[in-house]
Amino acid sequence: MRNPSMYEYRGGAGPAGRGRRRWTSLAASLLLATGALSGIHPASAGAATTTATVTVNARAGLATVPDTALGINHAIWDQHLGSAETSDLLRGAGVQMMRYPGGSYADIYHWRDHTAPGGYVAPGTDFDTFMAAVRRVGAQPMIIANYGTGTPAEAAEWVRYANLTKRYGAKYWTVGNENYGNGHYGAAWEADDHPDKSATQYAKLVVEYADAMKAVDPTIKVGAVLTMPANWPDGLTAGSDPGPWNQTVLSLAGPKIDFVDVHWYPGGSAAESLARTSHIGDAMYLLRQQLSRYAGANAARIGISFTELNVDAGRTTQPGALFLADAYSGLLENGAFTVHWWNVHNGIGAVSAVAGQTDYGDFGILSSGGCTSDGTVCEPPLNTPFAPYHGLSMMNLFARAGDQFIRAGTDQPLVTAHAVRRGNGELAVLLVNKDPDNAYPVAIDYAGFTPSAATPTVYTHTNGATSIATSQTGTATSRILPPYSLTTLVVRPAGVVAGQPGAPGQPTASGVTDRRATISWPVAAAGGSPIAKYEVYRQNGAISEQLGETTGTTFTVGNLNPGSRYTVNVLARDTAGRVSWASPPLTFATGSPATSVCSVRFTDSTDWGNGYIGAVDIINNGASPINGWTLTWTWPTTWQQVSSGWSANWEQVGNTVRVTNNDDSRQIAGGGGSTSIGFVGAYSGPNVLPTAFTLNGILCTAL
């Protein structure tokens, strides 16, 4: 019999689930209204005639796969939380971290008496049962301390019970769940008994929680809740807070926390949600910028977790599986230390047909075995894996703890690629075909790696399949990807090179200007021969561009482009010609000239989640007046645009904005004279603001 509670609730929704879903739908509608959405539209049925080129670049190192990478949510309304069958299925999918007690339920849950006033608590779901399941799976726990209706003392006692009394070694603890959904910004689904529901109050109490919990066990890591850039309520400031949620929380609680916790439900149709994985790199970049700007000294120590992901369309069918594998890979290669699907069991929702398969609208990766309220449609038997379960299993076959993600890319928007380098010399390449109708032939090119002529091991999950197919077929350089499929190739090297030097350590950047930057790194360990030199490479998409080489551990790069983002790696080469793995990546951004005959101040205000009011002040630092002007800048992404403007003539072609004076703004006096113009900006993804502006062809100082 279906558990009624499992039909009502999902991760971010909790006791007010339907209200949370309305906000998700509204946000998606607003994004569509901008007209700037980077959507994917399925091609016509049949085989694709154009071969997609995939580039896998072993020189372009990304993050290392952590031992907490693959996560999943468990919930106290799930009576099968502790069953051996459920745990064994999760272990089989490679789950490494499990979150408890379940989304918004965390803010009404009291661990001492295992109650959640206002919600349903299933039998056999207490904390000790959860920890027994964690151990059976071979995972680590992620525990949510009750912020909404709890206290720092209650959380501290939970830490004491878990780690001193029971010696569970629970390391990761988050303070609350989606607490920005407490009504402070107008939508209320998250329980919050505090009279003051501001971001400021949340941040102050996070400090109290962290102090109380770490007084019991100083080894734990405490996390605070943030929101995903370009997702509600990002950019909104309410009440007397000094800024939006993320800025406020980090400014006050940053020195006390060890990680930040983010959720992401991209919304939209299957094609739209699959396209939005392209936002991940910029979203992670903005999160890192926020940490650096607001979280205080040594902000680089603060990790990022994504503990809820799911889609609106195709939750139990192939779109869910494709999104899971693509999003997990993208987030992990950009440095997230864990990514969690929402959730294990959730219950049947709105039933539909997606790409020829029945989709049960269930947020769970395993069937709950229930039926619709009228009994006309029933899910498969309990614990039948849905497509996202197979997507998670594919991740387990693809990226193992200790592997290093390396850059991979394609020239076909409907095909994405990810790759890892393994300690035994193998490469694993994950290929995602997001086209529901067409198979795609792909040609795979490798840089910094020579594949063996041996047949690769191939794992494939196709639309409607109930398992992952394993074979040894084809070659390392070509493949045909079935429609709506996940394919992983495990490729052996042409020869194993012994005695390689170790990879250089984490590079850092200093002295960054508009044109130059100095890159430094820790010395690499020598292998079979002494290290001869270090090579510095820029990641230009999936292609590496060598910036230079040196025998030392510092290199100054010149001829950089102002207002641009650079990601670089360092490799060590020894006297025998053997090359190390790539260092961890370093990302930095150049600025504008320290001095110029012009200055530009670009500010955004009144942000409403997919748009804002922009103001641009143009300052003439020269002695002579300017009589007529043209200002230009280039948006960092394809999903940003000027919707309308005033006090000047505005146009946008591609990513480039061109503004010319009107009669009123034509003259700008010398010696610090200025003019101010404004516009309405729109965005449908992370809003990375420009930092390089030219006035009449001259690069200005950005203020």
From TrEMBL:
It comes from the Bacteria. The keyword Lipid biosynthesis does not apply. Keywords: Carbohydrate metabolism, Glycosidase, Hydrolase, Polysaccharide degradation. Residues 503-593 form the Fibronectin type-III domain. GO terms for molecular function: hydrolase activity, hydrolyzing O-glycosyl compounds; polysaccharide binding. Residues 591-703 form the CBM2 domain. The keyword Hydrolase applies. InterPro entries: CBD2 (IPR001919), CBM2/CBM3_carb-bd_dom_sf (IPR008965), CBM2_carb-bd_dom_sf (IPR012291), FN3_dom (IPR003961), FN3_sf (IPR036116), GH (IPR017853), Glyco_hydro_b (IPR013780), Ig-like_fold (IPR013783). GO terms for biological process: polysaccharide catabolic process. PANTHER family: ALPHA-L-ARABINOFURANOSIDASE C (PTHR43576:SF3), ALPHA-L-ARABINOFURANOSIDASE C-RELATED (PTHR43576). This is Alpha-L-arabinofuranosidase.
